Inverse folding.
């Protein structure tokens, strides 16, 4: 099996994004106008999908990777991210409630495990499920027109999450995630549409012929 480290790096990235998308509806009124705009966008939100470009600066691996892809989210706990990398390095991550699957197409392998607070820390699944409150979890400041979120208590490897507002029909243009290893992940979103009527079946994963499935707790 190859490139497992790359696949598991994506888990941390996805968890960080899940924190943000799960927490934003809990923002209270009376905050910064940019925050209020985001909150208003989330009122009545059931699902969203779009495209993204991700630039990952991985310090330990001394390299920068760029991915493009698409994503689908059905609140509160269903997500599907399709990464398209160079040389056919395609990765798909599916979260369906408490189950997560990472599928690496070129390697013909998939990893299956639970997506829960015991495995990935308390924050991601609790906040993805709408159980958290962003003002309790983060200190929020404004930095050059951007929103800077810093965890008030340990939240996995995340040091900060920066939100760049958008003037489009969806108020989040990009996210920047920095972890304690000085890795930096920049994700820019485009072509976002909301409340398209996604079905639960969109988050089912069928194992392709010839692909080996491994349990995560057996491979870590």
């Amino acid at each position: 099996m190859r490139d497992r480290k790359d696949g598991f790096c994506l888990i941390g990235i996805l968890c960080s994004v899940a924190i943000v998308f799960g927490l934003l509806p809990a923002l209270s009124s009376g905050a910064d106008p940019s925050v209020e705009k985001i909150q208003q966008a989330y009122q009545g939100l059931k699902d969203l999908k779009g495209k993204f470009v991700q630039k990952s600066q991985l310090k330990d691996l001394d390299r920068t990777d760029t991915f493009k892809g698409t994503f689908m989210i059905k609140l509160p706990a269903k997500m599907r991210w399709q990464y398209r990398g160079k040389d056919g390095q395609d990765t798909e991550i599916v979260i369906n409630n408490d189950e997560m699957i990472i599928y690496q197409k070129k390697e013909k392998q998939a990893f299956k495990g639970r997506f829960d607070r015991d495995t990935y820390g308390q924050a991601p699944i609790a906040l993805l499920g709408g159980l958290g409150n962003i003002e309790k979890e983060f200190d929020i400041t404004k930095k050059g027109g951007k929103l800077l979120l810093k965890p008030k208590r340990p939240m996995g490897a995340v040091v900060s999450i920066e939100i760049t507002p958008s003037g489009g029909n969806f108020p989040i243009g990009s996210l920047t995630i920095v972890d304690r290893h000085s890795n930096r992940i920049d994700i820019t979103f485009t072509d976002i549409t909301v409340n398209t009527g996604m079905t639960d079946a969109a988050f089912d994963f069928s194992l392709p012929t010839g692909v080996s499935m491994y349990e995560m707790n057996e491979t870590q």
User: Anything to note?
Assistant: Residues 4-199 form a domain with the outer membrane lipoprotein receptor (LolB), chain A fold (CATH 2.50.20.10). The chain has a mean pLDDT of 75. The CA atoms of residues 27 and 39 lie 6 Å apart.
